Amino acid sequence: MLVNAIIEVLSPGVAVLSLLMILLAMEVIWIIYARKFHPLAGIPGPWLASVSRLWVILKLHGGDMDIQQRQLHKTYGYLVRIAPNEIACSDPEAIQKLYRAQNPLTKTDFYPVWGSRVISKYPDNFSGVDERLHSQRRRIVNHVYSLSNVLQSEARIDRCTLILVDMFTRIAQNTDICDLGTWLQWYTFDVIGELFFGRMFGFLEKEEDHQMWIASLDDLMRGFCIVAVAPTYMRAIIFMSSLFDQTMRRALRGAATIVSAARKAVNDREADLSVNDEGKVQQDLLQQLLHIHHEKGERVDFGIHEVQQESYVALLAGSDTTAIAFRSVFYYLMKHRDVCRRLQAEIDSAAAWGNLSYPVQYAEAIKLPFLCACIKEALRVHPSVALTMPRLTPPGGMELNGKYIPEGYRVGVNAAVVHFDRRIFGPDADEYRPSRWLEPSAAARMEKYMIHFGGGTRTCIGKS
């Protein structure tokens, strides 16, 4: 090669300098190409983002990507280049194009990072990018996560709710300070434990982070986000270097205990089934997954490892996102006391008429319009996932907001951006105002552009 030939005839110092000059020249050529001749060169955005993925990595590390993106779209418009080959789109009309149910666009390599092949040979519902495989695997378990099925386990949720209320009562009587956000996270984990495994993990009763799961997931999510948006060739380097960080090592150990807990729960239940009839064991979501495994596991290739994976994903993905939603609802109620008083009046009125049980049941709660409005508004202004959910543009490319985007480039919408669009949610879209959901025709229109649970074929399977 030319570089080798140069090194042979030059002194070591000159050779190193020459190599550095070549690398610098290559970088300059890349910058000129990325800024002037790249297919996405016409899309505005931060200078650094147009030549490197470093910009998006830094913003993710800062933890305020939603705020940054909203500001970018105010500055540059509906389309913003956030990486050399990626566009963030804030046009609400693009949702139906990018997350369509018919002939869906392919997920990018952002997603496989979140999966684990340690448990199953199949990717989970979130991390898999093969649309046909995803459709096949999702159909196997879809009914387990349906609202009607989950409601059959409502009494399990009630058990957790009663413990939480008792704890709050004790705290109030002692006039102690309460970190509501932490309690809601504990509650969420214990609810998932009841729904999936027929038992709480003990977050609420022990008043502690069970095996440091929450702390581990907090650190792990941040690290995985950075790896997922990094260039493919850099991911292994970033991951390996993170192993020198004590926090990340602790997070990985915590995640490993979640995997172990999921496996143990499944294996223990299988052992229970080996000596008891199915009707005598816990009737929870895990039991329903095992029923699929026993009844048609060979035919649809749904083995014990797939049951373990479903259990693991429920803990990993379902806990944090649900807790964020809970915290958002209560945060905005506490911040807006007028809204809180109005909601309290609605609940008191329903209770006075004998329309509420204790604990309140789902069928009763959905008949309280202002309660539903408060929940929807909290999910609008603070969705659980505040990142762009990227897709690859299809063969032949596509048009977005009047711009042609060639095939094979990444483009996505961030719920935490599009949920603030004033054309859809009104001139006060930046404000928390639940009453916007009380007008039926306006609510139906706004609902079309709510993507806090994803969209199209990849809508969150556990949203119920």
Structural summary, described in words:
The protein is mainly alpha-helical and 464 residues long. The protein has two domains: 1-37; 38-458, Cytochrome p450. The protein contains 22 helices and six strands. It has helices at residues 2-9, 12-37, 47-51, 54-62, 65-76, 95-98, 131-141, 147-151, 154-173, 180-197, 203-206, 213-229, 232-242, 246-275, 285-300, 304-335, 337-352, 362-365, 369-381, 415-418, 422-425, 440-447, and strands spanning 79-83, 86-89, 388-392, 398-400, 403-405, 410-414. It has a four-stranded mixed sheet. A two-stranded antiparallel ribbon has the order 4-5. Helix 4 (54-62) packs antiparallel against helix 12 (213-229) and helix 16 (304-335) packs across helix 19 (369-381). The longest helix is centred in the C-terminal third of the chain and has 32 residues, at 304-335. It starts with a helix and ends in a 17-residue tail after the last helix. 32% of the residues are buried. The mean pLDDT is 92.
The major sheet is characterized as: 4 strands, mixed
Order of helices and strands: HHHHHEEHHHHHHHHHHHHHHEEEEHHH
- Strand content of the residues, in percent? 5-15%
Portion in helices: 55-70%
State the total count of DSSP E strands: 6
- Span from first to last CA? 60 Å
Number of helical regions: 22
Q: What's the Cα radius of gyration?
A: 25 Å
- Average pLDDT works out at 92
| Low-pLDDT windows of residues | none
Strand order of the largest sheet: 1-2-6-3
